[in-house]
Amino acid sequence: MSSCRVGLRLAACLLNISEARKKCIVENIAKAALLERNGQRHPEISVLNVFSDPEYNRSVITIAASIDELGLAENLVLSVPGCSVFLFGEADLPEKRPLVQRRKQLGWFTRRDFSTLKSDLGAAPARRCGLTACFRAL
């Protein structure tokens, strides 16, 4: 991501995907993150890394964007059916809860029934599949 603006505030997004064996699915989700609603490439959004682990069938896509572009989360929800978004840090307004606090409040590691979990944007996460995004201001 390049910008000539001094003091550009960035947000990071980690997309956790229950898919690693079908490369085209992971790539399509990464491409969807780069696009505006009109389908054009957004100049202030970059995919920094895509990590896939076929053995566990999990991928993580790391995205950076201007903090002003948190519409990225809304675009993902529209572009990727079943996408769940949870906000934390500066992106979690007005509470600005850290990731650890958010996970504890959600019962993220102890929960058995994910269908009752309310995401900030998008669908409730499925236990064994789907895409979950966490946004944090840097």
Topology at a glance:
Layout: E1 10-17, H1 23-33, E2 45-53, E3 58-66, H2 71-79, E4 83-87, H3 99-106, E5 121-122, E6 131-137
Parallel strand pairs: 4-6
Antiparallel strand pairs: 1-3, 1-6, 2-3, 4-5
GO molecular function: folic acid binding; transferase activity
Protein name: Formiminotransferase cyclodeaminase N-terminal like
InterPro entries: Formiminotransferase_N, Formiminotransferase_N_sf, FormiminoTrfase_cat_dom_sf, FTCD
Query: Which class best fits the helix and strand makeup?
Result: alpha+beta
Q: Percent of residues in beta strands?
A: 25-35%
Number of β-strand runs: 6
Question: What is the element string, with H for helices and E for strands?
Answer: EHEEHEHEE
Distance between the termini: 14 Å
- Measured as a percent range, the helix fraction is 10-25%
Query: How many DSSP H or I helices?
Result: 3
**What characterizes the major β-sheet?**
6 strands, mixed
Compute the CA-based radius of gyration. 15 Å
Task: Let me know the average pLDDT.
Answer: 78
> What is the 3D shape?
globular
Unreliable spans are none
Strand order of the largest sheet: 2-3-1-6-4-5
